[in-house]
């Protein structure tokens, strides 16, 4: 199956590119802030170690989620350049503009994403 050209106008592509770049900037700023928290942390006493462990684990998990989102954003920006942005990677069908406005980095239509989710839950 070949790559389908996008169904979006140049103006719409510019709008989505701006949304993606803004979200990318927020993530990078947040990751930078989290890094500063780790670097500036003092050694906790024994009573605080459990709290610190839980907080660090949560921050690491958040970072994993944010890093995955960053990867999807970068891929979406690349697809804008290639002219394939807004096309579902699973079906090759156009992703509705409403979905792209809500989640501009999504590589899938709702239907395909739900199907993938069901497959994951069956494992």
Describe what you observe in this structure.
By secondary structure, the chain is mostly helical. Helix content is 70%, strand content 0%. It is built from 4 helices and no strands. The protein has helices spanning 10-39, 46-82, 97-102, 110-122. Helix 1 packs antiparallel against helix 2 (46-82). It is elongated, with a radius of gyration of 19 Å. The protein starts with 9 loop residues before the first helix and ends with a helix. The mean pLDDT is 85.
List keywords for this structure.
123 residues; elongated; 4 helices; mainly alpha; 0% strand
Q: How would you describe the oligomerization state of the chains in this entry? A: single chain
Class by alpha and beta content: mainly alpha
Strand runs, count: 0
**What summary fits the major beta sheet?**
none
SSE order, as H and E? HHHH
End-to-end span in angstroms? Answer: 28 Å
Number of helical elements: 4
Helical content (DSSP H or I, runs of 4+): 55-70%
Query: pLDDT under 50 segments (min length 5)?
Result: none
Shape: elongated
Radius of gyration: 19 Å
Task: Estimate the strand proportion.
Answer: under 5%
Average pLDDT figure: 85
What is the element layout, followed by pairings?
Elements: H1 10-39, H2 46-82, H3 97-102, H4 110-122
Helix pairs in contact: 1-2
Structure at a glance:
The chain has helices spanning 10-39, 46-82, 97-102, 110-122.
């Amino acid at each position: 199956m070949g790559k389908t050209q996008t169904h979006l106008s140049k103006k719409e592509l510019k709008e989505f590119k701006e949304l993606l770049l803004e979200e990318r900037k927020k993530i990078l700023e947040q990751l930078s802030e989290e890094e500063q928290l780790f670097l500036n942390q003092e050694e906790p006493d024994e009573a605080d170690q459990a709290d610190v462990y839980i907080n660090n684990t949560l921050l690491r998990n958040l970072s994993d989620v944010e890093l995955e989102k960053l990867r999807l954003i970068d891929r979406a920006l690349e697809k804008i350049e290639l002219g394939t942005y807004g096309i579902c990677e699973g079906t090759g069908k156009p992703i509705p503009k409403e979905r792209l406005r809500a989640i501009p980095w999504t590589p899938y239509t709702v239907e395909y994403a739900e199907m993938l989710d069901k497959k994951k839950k069956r494992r």
